């Protein structure tokens, strides 16, 4: 449904942008330039290339992300913002050098671009989104929702949302509890199990949204639940009286009579996320090409220094808890973990001589540029861990799952400040830096971390 609706929205935006530019081209020729209108190469290129620019701009501003959750005021504000930004770009790129009789014609040109693009885009968008909102209110479109809690408070939240005269889009699949179960809730919703079964329930039932219905006095339970849930691609909502015990940025939403607090899971603005991904792919691709001599040299050194493969692949947990194969140059002797998963230490006998040098200079991480190109990783982000050690960390610090909100990185703030961890305690200490990174995440901070990483490589001061 999401893909279908996105395709309709993109196709409509492209068509309307073509019509808007064609209308402007006619206006520009006949009014601004006082010349006859004709369909020429400039016109044809314009109605193809200019709409492509608008589609790119709309995507950067997040219009096509989760479009089923669009509403009328949001599409109005998105259309106004993208039109304003796009009009300025088009004016300076294509219209500023026009030969005109007086600056007042510039104002006519820029006004025409803005008004034509805005209204041509907004009208069909508004019709589409208005139809979508009506389907949500009628219960024809919904989002699979899991209710966490089994008390009277959960019953109240369910009833307030479910029996409101306008459907909020929450399609309740069932509930999970932590302790006791209110019989009134069991009469309303299927009981799916205890919160310990959360992972399986989320995977099996394609849950999109979670509503946490706990009393504000249950601080510790709430902290653990949010920690477990927040590392996933889910919308998380809690009842308002929990606001004072939550940290981080939150966004208030009134769900048609049932006021809830939505935890803000978007760490970076959409345009920064797109730009970050673009920088990742471009820089990683360039690195793979330019570092080819380094790869060949390291491959020879690894192969001749000890028996075993050149590369080492291992399962790690990535964004939203999805596992992937991380690639490294092998720095240990084969069968290094025949006794089970182990972390390396400063004087680990399992590390080869060349491996010890490579680890100090972070050279063993270089093959991960391929992981970046594939989309498993980013240049900068929390270091990915194995599920075995994640399970151990979660016993002590449930907040660790928050690191799964973003792609893991080749380097991280924790890696720069702390280096390789030798035990679970050190992993938790390093985690604090990565959590700080999440709270302060920006492209500027990414560049700073990359610069520090480059210094570590050249100084060979990696732990």
From TrEMBL:
Entries under Pfam families matching the protein:
Bac_transf, CoA_binding_3
Q: Does the keyword Membrane apply?
A: yes
Q: Which residues does the UniProt record annotate as the domain Bacterial sugar transferase?
A: 276-459
Q: Name one GO cellular component term.
A: membrane
Any one GO MF term held by the record is: phosphotransferase activity, for other substituted phosphate groups
Q: Give the record's membrane topology.
A: Multi-pass membrane protein
Q: Does the keyword Magnesium apply?
A: no
Q: What is its main location?
A: membrane
Give the location in the cell.
Membrane
Arranged from A to Z, the UniProt key words for this protein are: Membrane, Transferase, Transmembrane, Transmembrane helix
Q: Which residues cross the membrane?
A: 7-27, 43-63, 75-94, 106-128, 281-302
Cite the NCBIfam families for this sequence: EPS_sugtrans
The family note in this entry says:
Belongs to the bacterial sugar transferase family.
Q: What is this protein called?
A: Exopolysaccharide biosynthesis polyprenyl glycosylphosphotransferase
């Amino acid at each position: 449904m999401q893909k279908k609706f996105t395709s309709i929205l993109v196709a409509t935006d492209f068509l309307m942008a073509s019509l808007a530019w064609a209308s402007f081209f006619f206006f520009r020729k006949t009014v601004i330039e006082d010349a006859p209108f004709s369909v020429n190469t400039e016109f044809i290129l314009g109605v193809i290339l200019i709409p492509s620019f608008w589609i790119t701009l709309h995507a950067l501003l997040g219009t096509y992300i989760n479009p089923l959750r669009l509403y009328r005021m949001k599409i109005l504000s998105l259309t106004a913002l993208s039109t304003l930004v796009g009009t300025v770009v088009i004016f300076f790129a294509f219209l500023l050098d026009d030969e005109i009789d007086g600056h007042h014609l510039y104002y006519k040109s820029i006004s025409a671009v803005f008004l034509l693009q805005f209204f041509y885009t907004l009208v069909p968008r508004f019709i589409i989104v208005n139809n979508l909102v009506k389907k949500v209110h009628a219960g024809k479109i919904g989002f699979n929702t899991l209710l966490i809690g089994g008390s009277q408070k959960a019953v109240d939240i369910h009833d307030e949302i479910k029996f409101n005269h306008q459907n909020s889009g929450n399609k309740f699949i069932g509930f999970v509890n932590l302790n006791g179960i209110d019989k009134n809730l069991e009469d309303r919703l299927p009981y799916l199990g205890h919160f310990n079964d959360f992972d399986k329930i989320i995977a099996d039932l394609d849950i999109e949204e979670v509503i946490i219905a706990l009393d504000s006095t249950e601080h510790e339970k709430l902290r653990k639940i949010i920690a477990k849930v927040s590392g996933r691609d889910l919308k998380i909502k809690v009842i308002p009286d929990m606001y004072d015990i939550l940290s981080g940025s939150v966004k208030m939403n009134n769900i048609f009579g049932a006021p809830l607090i939505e935890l803000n899971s978007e760490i970076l603005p959409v345009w920064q996320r797109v730009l970050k991904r673009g920088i990742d792919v471009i820089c990683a691709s360039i690195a793979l090409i330019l570092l080819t001599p380094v790869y060949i040299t390291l491959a020879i050194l690894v192969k001749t220094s000890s028996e075993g493969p050149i590369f080492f692949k291992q399962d790690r947990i990535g964004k939203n808890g999805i596992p992937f194969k991380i690639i490294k140059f092998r720095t240990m002797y084969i069968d290094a973990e025949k006794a089970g998963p182990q972390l390396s230490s400063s004087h680990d006998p399992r590390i080869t001589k060349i491996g010890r040098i490579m680890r100090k200079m972070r050279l063993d991480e270089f093959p991960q540029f391929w992981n970046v190109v594939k989309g498993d990783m980013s240049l900068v982000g929390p270091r990915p861990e194995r599920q075995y050690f994640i399970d151990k960390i979660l016993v002590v610090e449930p907040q660790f799952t928050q690191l799964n909100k973003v792609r893991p990185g080749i380097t991280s703030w924790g890696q720069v400040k702390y280096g390789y961890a030798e035990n679970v305690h050190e992993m938790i200490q390093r985690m604090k830096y990565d959590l700080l990174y999440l709270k302060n995440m920006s492209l500027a901070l990414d560049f700073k971390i990359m610069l520090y990483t480059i210094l570590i490589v050249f100084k060979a001061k990696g732990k």
